[in-house]
Amino acid sequence: FPPPGFQVAPETKAVMKWLRSIPFVLSASLHGGELVVTYPYDYSRHPMEEKMFSPTPDEKVFKMLAKAYADAHPVISDRSELRCGGNFVKRGGIINGAEWYSFTGGMADFNYLHTNCFEITVEVGCEKFPLEEELFTIWHENKGALLNYMEMVHRGIKGIVSDKFGNPIKNARISVRGIQHDVTTGN
Q1: Are 33 and 113 in contact (CB under 8 A)?
Q2: In which element (H, E) is residue 118 found?
Q3: Which residue, 88, 43, 84, 33, is CA-closest to 66?
């Protein structure tokens, strides 16, 4: 990662280095232009398919994370199909990224494939570039959902992997039966 010939911007390289140096486990990318929560994979399993469901081995976890955000968002959780983002109502306000539209080089895919960090993408509003006076409303619509999402860091297995003397083991590989995606311990 990234694909051959793909230019990586300096700020992206810096974030990639940062993600590899600190054992983050949860993140969210905030975008504008729609009102929906997406989760990996963002790149279709078949490069010629623009809208193809492409689940990770941790599909259930990602759906749970995306729903934690969507269900706590006052507009995304609104069941009206006539509102901004209404075309995602039947999906609960969430969608697999590649099923919505496929693109390569996304941070959520990078995080999942190259770090221990699970990332969702939150489209915070239908305006791609909201006006300054709209930001206060957008913040208040997303604040509770962000907090609810951050609390999800306490879900799952956590602890310290240590040797027989109680010393932490750095970079120990953790495997879960039935999920073909390992994670490693931090420092």
Answers
A1: no
A2: strand 118-125
A3: 88
- Amino acid in position 31: H
**Single pTM value for the model:** 0.89
> Which sign, positive or negative, has the C-alpha torsion 124, 130, 135, 137?
negative
Strand partners, 174: 183
Instruction: Tell me if residue 27 falls in helix, strand or coil.
Output: strand
Question: Which residue in this structure is represented by tokens 């992206």?
Answer: 12
Of 123, 132, 141, 151, the catalytic one is 123
Query: For this structure, is 123 an active site residue?
Result: yes
Please name the residues in contact with 25: beta carbons below 8 A apart, sequence gap of 6 or more.
116, 117, 118, 153
Structural domains present in the chain: 23-156 (3.40.630.10), 157-186 (no CATH)
The gap from C-alpha 56 to its chain's centroid, in whole angstroms, comes to 11
- Residue by residue, pLDDT tens for the chain (187 residues) are 555 666 778 888 898 899 888 889 999 999 999 999 999 999 987 777 788 999 999 999 999 999 999 999 999 999 999 998 999 999 999 999 999 999 888 899 999 999 999 999 999 999 999 999 999 999 999 999 999 999 999 988 788 899 999 999 988 898 889 999 898 888 7
